[in-house]
C-alpha cells in the first residue's frame, strides 16, 4: 500500500476542473463540496479548490494540506479511477485537523454511496 501523493494523483489542468464541473455529480456537507466523475486515467485523482472568500493564504493552505493528507492516508478505502474535486466552503475556516478529517470522511462516504447507487 502506497501513501504517496504524487503529481499523477492530482488534478492540475484547468480543462480537467472545467470538465469535472460540467459532467460531474455533486455532494456536500457543512464544510466541503465534492464534484466527482469517472476519470481519464487508471488512478483516482484529487483536485482541491479553496477560493479567496474562504480566508487568507495561510488558512487556505492549511485547508489544502488537511485535504491532501486525508486523501493520502485514506485513498486505499476508495477504489476505481475517479476524478474528485473538493471545494472548501467558508465554514471550513475554523476546523481543526480532526474536525476536517471527520468532515472529509463524511464527504468521501457520500461519494462512495453515490458511486455504487
Account of the 3D structure:
The chain has helices at 14-23, 57-74, 97-115, and strands at residues 25-28, 32-38, 45-49, 82-88. It has a single domain (7-115), classed as Ribosomal Protein S5, domain 2 (2-Layer Sandwich). It is α+β, with helices and mostly antiparallel strands and 117 residues long. Helix 2 (57-74) crosses helix 3 (97-115). Strand 1 and strand 2 form a beta hairpin.
Q: What would a concise description of this structure say?
A:
By secondary structure, this protein is α+β, with helices and mostly antiparallel strands. It is built from three helices and four strands; from the N terminus they run αβββαβα.
Identify the notable features of this structure and list them briefly:
117 residues, alpha+beta, Ribosomal Protein S5, domain 2, 4-stranded mixed beta sheet, 3 helices, 40% helix
List the helices and strands and how they pair.
Elements: H1 14-23, E1 25-28, E2 32-38, E3 45-49, H2 57-74, E4 82-88, H3 97-115
Parallel strand pairs: 3-4
Antiparallel strand pairs: 1-2, 2-4
Helix pairs in contact: 2-3
Q: What is the terminal separation in angstroms?
A: 27 Å
Number of strands: 4
Proper CATH architecture: 2-Layer Sandwich
Along the chain, the helix and strand elements come as: HEEEHEH
Poorly predicted residue ranges: none
Strand content: 15-25%
Mean of pLDDT: 91
The radius of gyration computed from the alpha-carbon positions, rounded to a whole number of angstroms, is 13 Å
Q: Quick one: biggest sheet?
A: 4 strands, mixed
Share of residues in helices = 40-55%
The CATH topology is given as Ribosomal Protein S5, domain 2
For the largest sheet, list the strands in their spatial order: 1-2-4-3
Compute the number of structural domains: 1
